[in-house]
């Protein structure tokens, strides 16, 4: 699992890759902790290179969403493949903005 955090033009982006599970989610949470959400800002979590995502990873994303919304910002998930199917199956796309992208 790899996590990269960047910021450009007021948009904070966390790009995740590899498997996100119980063993790697602490690293994901550390990356999410680096994100500064301010009123009106946008936070993007890029899941395009994620090959596996379990409930602990979903929990980390939901925790980030709560923190971002509480700060007056908005969260957007960029997904394809399995992560996109999971977001739709669990109706997370009804609560968090999910941007589907082609492979």
TrEMBL record:
Q: Name one Pfam family in it.
A: STAS
- Which residue ranges traverse the bilayer? none
Which regions form coiled coils?
Answer: none
- Which PROSITE patterns does this entry report, sorted A to Z? STAS (PS50801)
Q: Which InterPro entries match?
A: Anti-sigma_ant, STAS_dom, STAS_dom_sf
Show where the STAS domain sits: 1-103
Q: Which family does it belong to?
A: Belongs to the anti-sigma-factor antagonist family.
Protein name per its UniProtKB record: Anti-sigma factor antagonist
Higher taxonomy: Bacteria, Bacillati, Actinomycetota, Actinomycetes, Micrococcales
């Amino acid at each position: 699992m790899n996590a990269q955090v960047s910021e450009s033009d007021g948009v904070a982006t966390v790009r995740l890759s590899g498997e996100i599970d119980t063993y790697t989610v602490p690293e994901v949470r550390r990356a999410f902790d680096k994100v500064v959400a301010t009123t009106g800002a946008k936070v993007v979590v890029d899941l395009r290179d994620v090959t596996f995502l379990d409930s602990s990873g979903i929990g980390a994303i939901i925790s980030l969403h709560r923190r971002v919304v509480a700060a007056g910002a908005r969260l957007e998930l960029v997904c394809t493949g399995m992560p996109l199917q999971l977001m739709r199956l669990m109706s997370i796309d009804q609560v968090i903005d999910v941007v589907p992208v082609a492979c």
